[in-house]
Every structure is written in structure tokens, then in C-alpha cells.
Amino acid sequence: MSDLHQKIVAMDLWPLALPVVARRDHGIGSVEGTCEVIVLRLRAEGGQEGFGEASPWSVFTGSPEASHAALDRYLRPLVVGRRLSDRAAIMADAGRAVAHCTEAKAALDTALLDLAGRVCNAPVWALLGGKCRDTIPLSCSIANPEFEQDIALMHRLRADGVGLIKLKTGFRDHAFDVMRLERIAAEFPEFRVRVDYNQGLSIEEAPARVRDVAAFGPDFIEQPVAAHHFDMMARLRDETTVPLLADESVFGPEDMTRAARDGICDGVSVKIMKAGGLTRAQSVARIAAANGLSAYGGDMFEAGLAHLAGAHMIAATPEITLGCEFYQATYFLKEDILETPFPVRDGQVIVPDGPGLGLRPDIARLNHFSQSDPVAA
């Protein structure tokens, strides 16, 4: 069989621990040594395969153990034996079968779309409504507690043609953040700078510190306080001279509707891992745009497979206008899991045009980095 009426006959899981090049500190936590992701493979009756990636972070979206359990125990029965044409119904069932676990749902949605695209000989962006851009500006986050190592990284970014950086702040004292902003302005004046606190400020210190940082004129300041502090986010938005963006405060379309209503932000970080899938991520961006708010393509601690899903989603979503952060496969992981490198050139992510996601993971690498034998059905 070669059409979307094929049944899905198998599902495999690889829990991976991927070595990283350096420690990264964010306002709410750190990543060091490895980052953990779950790779999902679906197989159709005709033998075609589709892949997806769940990229959790325990202090933000959830744990890798929760993602694995959601896929293996709660979502597997909803998938195996169903037809490829049932994607919308499968994802609706997934939303009811287990609360939260948005990364697991994103991996499932990605694998269903990748598999459908390979069966139909169409890229995922075509299944999401068609392509509005061929390239996406790449932003790289600066988050190493050893700032001299980040200076070396920025020299590399400059040589590679990357023009956007995001400084992670709020994980040490305010003087450290100001010092880094001053050095970046002096040594790398060509970079456009964004600032991201990842909820790192208390409500008492946030107004003064955000005001100081705004004086440097960044493109935006992201999520200074905890996700639930909607009133303080609204106050900071009113008092801040640069755009204020929400990240942890907005997971899916439901949160975006409230954020727009309560006036907590000028824009939003759209992540398929938060939203629970590519279609829901598109909905977040469209609700933002309908309310006059901007959007950019954020990510978690991801490998190239999740980057591909995000790139296809952004390619089909004209409302996302501020670029993307799909840098980990190139600049953070010691070794990515794709057969060929995630496509970045001259500071731009190149949107693939091949069937499905356009690229595939290397099974040998999945087996090498796996923390257990693949869990199959």
C-alpha cells in the first residue's frame, strides 16, 4: 500500500543521552554533561518510516521519564493499528489520554507528519499549509557560566554569518549580566541581541533589573519572572521600553488566549515541545498575530530531528517573524543524531524540501546513545 489509508504497524522508542560541549545556565536551571531526548519511530504497512523527537527539560516542560512513559504506555495504544489518515483523531485522543506531556505529543505529531509526508512524497511544510519562506534567521543563545568560552563561541558565530544572539540572564548576579551586555556591545557591535531571563527574577527585583537591561536596546526581553506572575508580566510590559516576550507563561493556544487578553507580553516564544505538536504551535502563533503580537521559533534542548520539525512548522507559519533558535545540533551537541548535518548556512536555517522532514536520524547513532534497547511494538 502507498497511500494514507495504510495502518501504522509498529512503534519504536530510543531514550537518548546526548553529550554536550559545555555547561549552560538558564534562570531556572542548568544543563551539563548530556541532554536527554526520546526518539520515536513509526512504521506503516508499506514499510515507510516516520520519526519524531521529544525534548523535555525537567524544570520547564517535564522529565524524560515522563515523556517515555507517556509514549510507551499511554499513547502507543492510540497509534498502532490506526491509519495514517487518522492523524487529527490520534492527536485529539492523545490530548485526552494523558495530561501535560506536551513533548511526547510533539514527538508523536512529528512522526505522524514525517511518515505521511514520506508516503505522499511531500515535505511536512506542505502538509501544514504550504511554505512561506525558504530560510529562517538563526539565533544562538549565550549561556555559558564561563563567559570567556562564550566569547570564543561568538567569534565562531561571527565567522559563520550568524547575526542574532540571545543572552541568558538571571542565573547569577545583575552585575554579571550587565558586564556581559557591555562586552558584547563593545566587541560584537554587529550582533542583534535578545535577552532571556527564563523566569530568573523575583517580583521584587524585576522592575529595576529589566529597566537596566532595556537601556542596552535589545530586540526583546523574555520571561523575566515566573510563569504564573501574569500581573507582574503585565506591569513590566507597561514599564519597559523594549518588547517583552512570554515563554514559560504560554504553552498552548489556551495560554496564548489568556496572555493576549491579560496584556502580559508583546510577543511569544512558539515551541512545538510546549504546544504539544506542530499544528497547535501554529495556532499559538496565529492567536498572537490576531492580537497584534509577534512570535519567534523557540526550542528546548533539542537534537536535529526536533529542529527539523520546528523548521517545517515555521516555514508554513507566516506569523512567526523573529527567526528561530535551532542552534543546538550545530553549536551545543558534541554529535547530532541526523544522517547528514542539520542545514544551516550563512546564519540561516535552510528549510528542507524532501519528503517528510527531509532528513532522517542515523539508526547507528540512536543505538549508540540509547540508554536502553529500543522499546518496540
What does this entry look like structurally?
Helix 5 links the parallel strand 7 (139-142) and strand 8 (164-168). Helix 2 packs antiparallel against helix 3 and helix 9 runs parallel beside helix 11 (278-290). The protein has helices spanning 64-79, 87-97, 102-120, 124-127, 147-160, 174-187, 206-214, 230-239, 253-262, 272-275, 278-290, 304-315, 328-331, 363-369; strands at 8-19, 24-26, 29-31, 34-44, 49-54, 135-137, 139-142, 164-168, 192-196, 221-222, 244-246, 267-270, 294-297, 344-345, 348-350, 375-376. The chain folds into 2 domains: 8-121 and 362-376, Enolase-like, N-terminal domain (Enolase-like, domain 1), CATH 3.30.390; 127-350, Alpha-Beta Barrel (TIM Barrel), CATH 3.20.20.120. The two termini are 21 Å apart. With 377 residues, it is of the alpha/beta class. The strands form 4 sheets. It has a 7-stranded parallel β-sheet. It contains 14 helices and 16 strands. The model has no long low-confidence stretch (mean pLDDT 96).
Short structural description:
By secondary structure, the chain is α/β, with parallel strands linked by helices. Helix content is 39%, strand content 19%.
At the third CATH level, what is the topology name of the largest domain? TIM Barrel
Number of domains: 2
Estimate the global geometry from the Cα principal axes.
globular
> How big is the Rg?
20 Å
Please, how many helices?
14
List keywords for this structure.
2 domains, globular, 14 helices, alpha/beta, TIM Barrel, 7-stranded parallel beta sheet, Enolase-like, domain 1, 4-stranded antiparallel beta sheet, 377 residues, single chain
